[in-house]
Amino acid sequence: MTAARFKNSVRAMYAPIASILLTLALGFLLVMAITDDPLQAYRDLLFANFDSLGSFALFLNRATPLTLIALGVIFSFRAGIFNVGGEGQLYAGAIAATVIGVTFAGLPAIVLLPLALMGGILAGAFLGWVPGVLKVRLAVDEVVTTLMLNIIVLLFTSYLSNQVIRDTKSYGAVSEMVPEKIWLPALPGVPGATSGIVVAVLLASATWVVLFRTVWGAQLRASGTNLRFANAVGIPADQRIIVAMLIAGGLGGLAGVLYVLGIGHRFEQNFSPEYGLVGLTCALLARIHPIGALATAIFYAMMINGSAYMQISTDVPRSLVDLLTGLLVLLMTARLATPKTRS
Amino acid sequence: MTNADHILRLSGISKSFGEKVALKHVDLDVRRGEVHVICGENGAGKSTLMNILAGIHQPTAGTLILNGREVVISDPIEASRLGIGMVHQHFALVPSMSVSENVFLGRNLRKWGVFADKAAMVARTRELIARYNFRLDPEATVGTLSVGQRQRVEILKALAFNAELLILDEPTAVLTPPEVDELIGVIAGLREMGRTILFITHKLREVKAVSDRVTVIRHGESVATHETGSVSEADIARDMVGRNVFLVGRGNEQARRPFGPTVLKLSNVSMTDSAGRLLLKNISLEVRAGEILGIAGVDGNGQTELSEAIAGLREIQAGFIELGGRTITEASVPERQSAGMGFVPEDRLDRGLSKTMSVAENLAVSNYRRAGLKRGGYVDQDRLEAFAAEKIREYDIRGAVPESPVSTLSGGNMQKVVIARELYRDPDLLVVCQPTRGVDVGASEFIYARIMAAADRGRAVLLISSELSEIFALSDRIGVMYSGQLLRIIERKDADEVIVGALMNGSLEAAA
Amino acid sequence: MYLSSFLASVLEQSAPILLAALAAMITLRANILNVAVEGMMLVAAFVAIAVGSATDSAALAFFAAVLASILMSQLLALMTLRFSADFIVAGLGINLLAAGGSLFALEWFYGTPGGLRPITFPDIWHVAPGSLSFIPVIGPAIERQSIILILAFIAIPLSAVFLYRTPTGAYLRAAGEDEHAARAAGVSVVRMKAISLAISGLFAGLAGAQLAMDKLHFFLPEMTSGRGFIGLAATLFGGGHPWVTAAASLLFGFFGALGDRLQAFSLPSQFVLMMPYIAAIVGLTLARWRIHVRNRPARIVVEGSA
Lengths: 343, 512, 306
Hints:
Helix content of chain A is about 75%, strand content about 0%. Chain A is mainly α. Chain C is built from twelve helices and no strands. Chain C has helices spanning about 1-30, 35-55, 60-80, 85-110, 140, 145-165, 165-175, 180-185, 190-215, 225-240, 240-260, 270-295. Chains A and C meet through helix 6, helix 7, helix 12 and helix 14 of A and helix 4, helix 10 and helix 12 of C.
């Protein structure tokens, strides 16, 4: 790589690092205000994740869906689509994988696993496709469609998990367990952590390569930054945008699949602590750069997971992280312009 | 003439936007009760001058004397208070509201302090309409009105609050011929009522039809003021266009070699909008290999639609387009590119470039395969850089490194990026629009040289420009677009800028 | 009467949705897609219970709730209008802030993360039972309804009057529909948007207060359950007109009440609940389709061309 290209890559990390530092600073102020032992609280918030193999595993498990959703957001924003449907795509993928796994439990793993995988990815992709097509062909506001679809999917999964595939032996709206034969292996050396994290990291790199090192990616970015330009130079912009939305939805769906197959092993109605919104935030804070988003997602996973430990050892409630996230989203969009200005 | 007879006097008005000088020491006298036309080419500075009067810009030098007193017009509200009413070219109307609601927008009459007194506003609007004989229904929804009617609402808005001086900016640009006649009638009526009217236009017929006096602005300076009755359209056209110094030109030389076969052919091409208005009227033209056909015309007469139709960005509703003998009427943009077309759009930031992407990517975007930058689906970064570096050198694109975002370049250098990209494919047909708009002299010369070199190599060039000097410098034949029609195509050697200028401005007298 | 009690439950279900819809509608007319209605409602609900149990005054609780919601709306206004934040992201941020903040307050100040359930709680004014029995069917349905519900229904014509019969309403609509025209007329677009957000906060505050104080008298972390978004869906479906929006809200409320009763039957309540959102998407798509068709270039009538 030439010096200039390296400089560009480094420059792309400024935004995520700045936002991480701002989060840390703001959070510390809050913690200082409410507890006598802010240092202990903060230490636990961040580093308790590494105290034991168990906590490390949980942290990695949080990072997986966050990263994937952030990557999905990045694809859609780079295509010029303001996609806030991550939560719905996540749930769609999760429920599809669960239904397939439970319904066809008799099939051998070598068939069932890819089937569940594909089913989940396609379910998410469909949820990306609908708003994409409506936007490209009819200029229907994608924020509204993705927002509405989120809720529709959540209601649908609630129906399925309450009525259709419910595990009547357990308490609450949970589905039956997905057959063990298709559970994803744990990360070697870290029992409890899903190997899905590896997939997430690989896909982050792949996203970067696709967006910045392929012709397709260059064409997509051209379509997202200036559609009229893309049309004028002969790029099939409509196609690129719709495919990008399929990928974006598919990544969200994959996040759901990896959750079900690798972490929860079943579908629970409220398994996501706003992964969709936090994933969106991670992507935006990293200025929709894939590697930067990986960094912010990992950081947020640390905080979300760490907040539980912080609550145990000090008296700081874990909802501090939610409060902090809300503040941060507000502040960060004010300071930096978002990648796509909406009309 | 004493001051009392002048409602407005501008002395030494200058205006610069950063480095760009828009107006240089403009003097203007406007007599009370007259219709005074401001005439000039695109970019001459007419709109800037009017915007100063409307309070949208502040002059960088000079004084404004209104009704004998020096004034500072700080914003549109102040202009309105001073009795100046501006009717913009692009209407500022809310389509879902009625005529009276639009007239009183921002200044609603109130009932009991809290409510809008709709009845009173409708009544007052009706009064105004009757007074000026406008034939409008105060309760009609603006969205349902025709363009001519909407314009009358705009004029009414300007008049409603005691405007003595009415400024109309290119009012006929969007009107059909019968609507133009109506407007001329309205203006005459207003003059009879003692209003003073300042009117910007480039259309000579209108100048003669309605004005008392005309002032010509050229390159930011006021060139002359005439009593309309004592000049001809040709005189005015000559003032507008002047004697320009041509840059490197092939104009006066004989054609160096015979032209080759026809490369681009348009036959009876027409285009409509959703309301059925004809944007392009039955256009036929041919461009041969080695030839530069220049299409002159003031912006907004169909050139954008013509270039987009040829480039494949907009459908036509009648006629055929052929490139190199093959029909491309239904062809997509990439198909036209393969057939040998290059397209430099009129607004580089709108259609020519992606501001945030790098110089290299903007150069490469339609050239990956041809430049050997693809390896499978991947982009070879080293080759991309080398390709960009070479183009930067070749086109002398200043201030550029391959990775820098293209937005860091100056206007002229950005334009060079677009041209470098399109010329890389050495297209058989180069369609280039407004190539030097917002471009400095040095870069302009470079660009002209490139365009001529393409023609010398045997390529066909369609040049669409509102800059007469560049049309004359480069073209072998010159056509004029006016109101969606291609009026005439003449050989360069038979062309005279006064005649062409007159044609561009709709003067049928000169066309005879 | 069975019909009356069904109507009563329709009205009850509709009230917060109606208020949320009106909140979204006012901002929509100013060209703002207000996704923060949900968060504003939640904050109002929390403040209502917190202040009510602390002061034992229903009136104070009510006003505090509305004030809190308006303050949230102005925070959104500040971030977006003064600091150029993106409306959608900032709106979602407000929602997150409301959810996280209320949860945090529950944990930190009350130590009850599950919710805030005061033992006693002052009651807001309700229509006295039996006072309206002389009106058939509708009378008994309105009995026992809270003052806020009455206010909600009054808000419909009030909104219409505001938008269509006051100068500020007209200027607000102009700012939303055509900024250029508004500015040329001297209307401050920023001010209009800020006003629309404040009114939005008012209605959202009423909605939150209604949720918390009408029958329940407690606060649960997710008690708004997406009603803010149902309201948004109703507004989008109604194109921003007060009466259509109100009708859509009542319709969604109707189906909500119906859904409750249909639990016993085969139709799952979730599908009923999905309807507002599907309706919003369908409505928008149809509107866009009409515009798309209208903007097609006209055919050329080929007679003898000139």
